Amino acid sequence: MKIYHNIDLFQPVPNPIVTVGTFDGVHLGHQQIFARMREEAQHIGGETVVVTFFPHPRLVIHPDSKNLKFINTQERKYEIIARNQIDHLIILPFTREFSNLSSGDFVKRYLVDKIRMRKLIVGYDHHFGKDRLGGFNELKGLGKIYGFELQEVPAMMIDGVPVSSTKIRNALNEGNIKLANSLLGYDYSISGKVVYGNRIGRTIGFPTANIEQDDVYKLISAVGVYACKVDYHGRIYKGMGNIGYRPTIDVGDLTIEVNIFDFDDEIYGERIIIYFIERIRDEKKFENLSALRDQLTIDRAKVLELLR
Predict the structure, then answer these.
(1) At what angle do helices 177-184 and 165-173 cross, to 10 degrees?
(2) Is residue 260 within 8 Å of 237, Cβ to Cβ?
């Protein structure tokens, strides 16, 4: 996949099949759109083009909001889009000035004049342009004016519920990792650099890698203990993760840590990716470290059973 941070560097390609969006999560609904794009491109000898934005529009339009969190980091989002066999990814700088573009001006200036799109494929609830006033009916009219085809992809349904970024965020906030992963179509993850902790885990036989996450806008799943997999330099290990405040030792600050099974390398300063598979219990305060160790022994057995 070719990535363009400046649309002026994009050279015309044959029969561009285009979609536009923020794609927070790049979930199964988004992946369904990408699959349709690939089918259409193959049918007419075209190439697929995804247009997205950076920074996220909400960070520009609502800069004072303290609670804006996103399912994926930008890098992770681009990685998953690439995995969906998209040919071109264009990242448009989102500014206050850009946010004032009408939907018609956006389509004409970027999608028609710059990309010369042949076909636009959008999701069932797609809105765009200033105040998100542009919708499917307006796009139909613009298609007639500028000569591009338009397709709408219906909602992806799982158990009678449409897949959406909002539902995934809600699932993560509740710690329902299994649901979030089923809607994403892959495992939710947090990546970051391994940093020094208080090293108490070592004293009870459960050393952990504490990570400093990559992105302050990353949505962190609910506090609790999780069955995990850990990617370290491309090798995958089983592990037991914890998101929380470690009340037994009164740490106070939110920490993200993982006990990597059958692993004893020193990896401070190294980057790892923690994939969260299932939440096994709430975080609890124990009477002492001995009681904590006993519970972690039970947790480890449960995690191994889940990941077997």
Answers:
(1) 160
(2) yes
